[in-house]
């Protein structure tokens, strides 16, 4: 499991696309993958979480669904593209405040599960988890 | 002619990015230290702030060029070997993207408007580097948040990615500490 993390418009998707190049992958934008999908990219998780919150789904259930996805894809390639949204001003909108809390906690769970976490800062990748075995600074920064 | 060095420094509000940028620049011997200021006074507080900064820099031996829009005009004021500091990308982008809002026709709503301005700006940055010995660019971290203004944030992301790719060095400032990312 690999997480690619960073602020909006920092080049996260482009980084993943270049990393995958020609490999067969199911790209899930704003949704969770189906059970049959093998080798997946999950992007726009925050959109999916927001949709569930708008449908009045409780946080516990949302967390469980995300956890179940991680478990069901164990041993297969799973790349999660997560957007950092939690370093701004407290939102006025109640659902956005809730969203910030929920994704903050989900991200913590996902970061715990992932073997690799790469942060993207304006196109520059930096390995922030998994460095012990995999960090080769020179290669890592291309 | 070889291009001058380019350094990108970005950070949150009061992260110490401007102080670090000035330090980096003043460490390099140069005939002149030029400050390209993008701030635009829209109220008395802002006016006072700009004047204060101008005075501070004057005492420090800086030459200030106020250029809120159309950076290509600043080119004429840059001399060979100058050490140039541009502060900052976020204010420049706001000035250009919303130019014309008083007339109800901001650039952001006109097709191709910002694209043309950005192409010109890329060219200007290259030309500044050809003349100056060094160009240090300062900007803000505002993308780790909800998308509030998609056009502005998308442009800022694209501009930052380009500048980082073009730069010799890139730093992220946090609490007065510069983290070298490139």
Give a concise summary.
Chain A: GO terms for molecular function: adenosylcobinamide kinase activity; nucleotide binding. Chain A has 142 residues and is an alpha/beta fold. Chain A contains six helices and six strands, in the order E-H-E-E-H-H-E-H-E-E-H-H.
Task: Explain what this protein looks like in three dimensions.
Chain A is an alpha/beta fold and 142 residues long. Chain A has helices at 12-20, 45-54, 59-72, 94-113, 131-134, 137-140, and strands spanning 2-6, 26-29, 40-43, 78-83, 116-121, 124-129. The two termini of chain A are 21 Å apart. The mean pLDDT of chain A is 91. Chain B has 182 residues and is an alpha/beta fold. Chain B has a single domain, classed as P-loop containing nucleotide triphosphate hydrolases (Rossmann fold), CATH 3.40.50. Chain B has helices spanning 17-26, 44-59, 89-97, 113-131, 150-166, and strands spanning 5-11, 33-37, 62-66, 83-87, 134-140, 169-174, 177-180. Chain B has a seven-stranded mixed sheet with strand order 3-2-4-5-1-6-7, sandwiched between helices. The longest helix of chain B is centred in the C-terminal third of the chain and has 19 residues, at 113-131. Chain B is globular, with a radius of gyration of 16 Å. In chain B, 33% of the residues are buried. The mean pLDDT of chain B is 93.
Helix amount of chain A, in percent?
A: 40-55%
Mean pLDDT of chain A: 91
Give the number of helices of chain B.
5
Would you tell me the structural class of the helices and strands of chain B? alpha/beta
Query: What's the total number of strands of chain B?
Result: 7
User: Compute the gyration radius of chain A: what is it?
Assistant: 15 Å
Oligomeric description of these chains: heterodimer
Name of the CATH homologous superfamily of chain B: P-loop containing nucleotide triphosphate hydrolases
CATH structural architecture of chain B: 3-Layer(aba) Sandwich
Q: What is the N-to-C succession of helices and strands of chain A?
A: EHEEHHEHEEHH
Distance between the termini of chain B: 24 Å
Helix content, binned percent of chain B: 25-40%
Fold-level CATH name of chain B: Rossmann fold
Which stretches of chain A of 5+ consecutive residues score pLDDT under 50?
Answer: none
> Count the helices of chain A. How many?
6
Q: Count the strands of chain A?
A: 6
Number of domains of chain B: 1
When the domains of chain A are counted, the total is: 1
Q: Characterize the largest beta sheet of chain A: strand count, sense, and whether it forms a barrel.
A: 6 strands, mixed
What is the fourth-level CATH superfamily of chain A? P-loop containing nucleotide triphosphate hydrolases
GO molecular function, one term (chain A): adenosylcobinamide kinase activity
InterPro entries (chain A): CobU/CobP, P-loop_NTPase
GO molecular function (chain B): adenosylcobinamide kinase activity; ATP binding; cobinamide phosphate guanylyltransferase activity; GTP binding
Enzyme class (chain B): transferase
């Amino acid at each position: 499991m690999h997480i690619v993390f960073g602020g909006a418009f920092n080049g996260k998707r482009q980084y993943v696309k270049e990393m995958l190049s020609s490999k067969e992958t199911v790209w899930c934008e704003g949704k969770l993958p189906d059970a049959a999908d093998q080798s997946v990219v999950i992007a726009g998780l925050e959109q999916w979480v927001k949709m569930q919150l708008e449908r009045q789904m409780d946080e516990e259930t949302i967390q469980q669904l995300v956890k179940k996805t991680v478990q069901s894809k164990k041993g297969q390639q799973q790349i999660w593209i997560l957007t950092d949204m939690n370093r701004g001003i407290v939102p006025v909108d109640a659902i956005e405040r809730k969203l910030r809390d929920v994704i903050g906690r989900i991200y913590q769970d996902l970061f715990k599960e992932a073997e690799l976490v790469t942060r993207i800062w304006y196109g520059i990748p930096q390995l922030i988890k998994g460095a012990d075995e995999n960090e080769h600074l020179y290669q890592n920064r291309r | 002619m070889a291009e001058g060095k380019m350094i990108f420094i970005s950070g949150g509000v009061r992260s110490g990015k401007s102080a670090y940028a000035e330090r980096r620049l003043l460490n390099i011997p140069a005939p002149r230290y030029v400050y390209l200021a993008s701030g635009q006074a829209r109220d008395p507080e802002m006016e006072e702030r700009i004047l204060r900064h101008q005075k501070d820099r004057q005492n420090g031996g800086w030459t200030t060029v106020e250029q809120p829009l159309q950076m290509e005009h600043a080119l004429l004021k840059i001399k060979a070997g100058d050490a140039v500091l541009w502060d900052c990308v976020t204010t420049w982008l706001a000035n250009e993207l919303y130019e014309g809002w008083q007339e109800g026709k901001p650039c952001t709503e006109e097709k191709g408007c910002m694209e043309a301005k950005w192409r010109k700006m890329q060219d200007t940055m290259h030309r500044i580097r050809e003349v100056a010995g060094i160009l240090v660019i300062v900007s803000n971290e505002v993308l780790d948040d909800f998308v509030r203004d998609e056009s502005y944030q998308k442009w800022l992301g694209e501009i930052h990615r380009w500048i980082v790719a073009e730069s010799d060095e890139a730093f992220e400032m946090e609490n007065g500490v510069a983290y070298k990312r490139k």
